[in-house]
Amino acid sequence: EADIYQTPRYLVIGTGKKITLECSQTMGHDKMYWYQQDPGMELHLIHYSYGVNSTEKGDLSSESTVSRIRTEHFPLTLESARPSHTSQYLCASRRYWNTEAFFGQGTRLTVV
Amino acid sequence: DQQVKQNSPSLSVQEGRISILNCDYTNSMFDYFLWYKKYPAEGPTFLISISSIKDKNEDGRFTVFLNKSAKHLSLHIVPSQPGDSAVYFCAASAGGATNKLIFGTGTLLAVQP
Question: Chain A contact for B53, CB < 8 A?
Answer without folding.
Answer: no
